[in-house]
Amino acid sequence: EDWLRKFHHWDKRLGRRSLDYVTKSQDGKLQFHPNLIVARLKPYLDAGYKPVDITLALGNTPWDLATPVGSPPKEGVWGRKTPPGDLAEWGAVVRHFALDLKNYLGEDAEKVGFETGVEFDEKSSFDGGAQAFFRYYEATDRALHSVLPRARVSPGEFTGGGECRPVNPNCVYDTQRLIDVARRDGLVINVIPRSLHSLVDKKVAWPSEAARRTLASFARLPGVTPEIHQFGLLFEPFGEDAGSDPGPMYANWEFQTLARLLLAGPPRRVFHWGGFIPVGKFLFLNGSGFLRLVLDHYLGRSVALAETRDTQVGRPFPAETFALSLTGADSVALIASSFSPRPAPGARPISIELPAAWKGKGVKLVRYRASDNVFASIKRDLAAKNNLRSEFSSCLLCLGSPIKMAADVGRVRKMIARNWPRYEREMRDGLKWVDNDPNVFIQGRTLTAQMEANELLIVEPLI
After folding, report:
1. Closest C-alpha to 247, from 198, 280, 206, 290
2. Looking at the DSSP assignment, which residues form a beta bridge with residue 193?
3. For 350-372, what is each residue's pLDDT tens digit?
4. N or C: which end of the chain has fewer CB within 10 A?
């Protein structure tokens, strides 16, 4: 309910069913709402996405559909967690949905991907056992392919290692067991997606550990096509209540994790969360959005690991560093990164080996760092207006969304509206090349940069 209200989708007549594709009338008849399909897909199609780029999660089960024992459905974190109680009814709903999608997209409907829910390997999302999920997957597969024979289908993303162990009573099914059942019964599994989250207060916050556990989880599932359908660094630096650092910490975790996966054998696709932090009508480019712009700029380049050396004695903060060289037919660039889950002031020298194609000693660069970005600017403005939450005022480089950093939300909204032209200019300026920087220089075949704990540095030769 809170999400429906927050994003202005709450319909007083329908209540928590406001975004359900199917509801029941008072006489128990199914009522379908194909307008929701158009409302959901049209913004992406208008922005240039193709149907083949899109994966639809067929979950959660609509509230009005039957439950296994006839009792009211239970609510999970993201909606109904009780599985369908009447698989014939569920199959009819899936077929009707596929027909409505085909009416909207035509033959391109078969290019859309589908997954059965989101993280349904956990009871917090699917309150049933393994056999119940296997029957649910079969009913979904057969109903969907009766209308769209060539459609791509997968289970929802798995969590953790995708294994059911005695120490995990919340587990619904083991991913390998699902693959075995699908092969036995002639069901389709085109890809195996997983979630890839890291919590800053756990050891898996480090990009190297996030990449390691991801590669290990797919290694135990030979022959599958891997994808990552939820991806992000969560709840830093002060836990869920204070939200996530939306800027350089996020960008550097994503870059280093993605780079390690790319070099080791990449997943077919990675679905990022949003690239902006909304505050009313104002949109602030966050770390994920910044990184996506950078990677899109170098689309098609050859990628290689660039050796980094962090040799400073008595380092001022723990950090992981990583760098890639990106080479095109007549161009070359470096992306260097420093990540730390415990931001601290100061910088230290990081040396990076230049790729063979690099020519000259002049450089142009873009720096995205904790001390200099739009969220840091907003934090300074909040402090000047005595409207900064205490946990942020006591941590020099800790950042959050504007709403999370503010003690008084009403005042920060007015401040953002008043200062928006400056904030917009800062975001644009942060994407512009700067010629030369005394803290970034070349000696021989090595580039040395003074880098903060969380900093993304993009460098090209100055021609």
Report:
1. 290
2. 227
3. 999 999 999 988 999 999 999 99
4. C
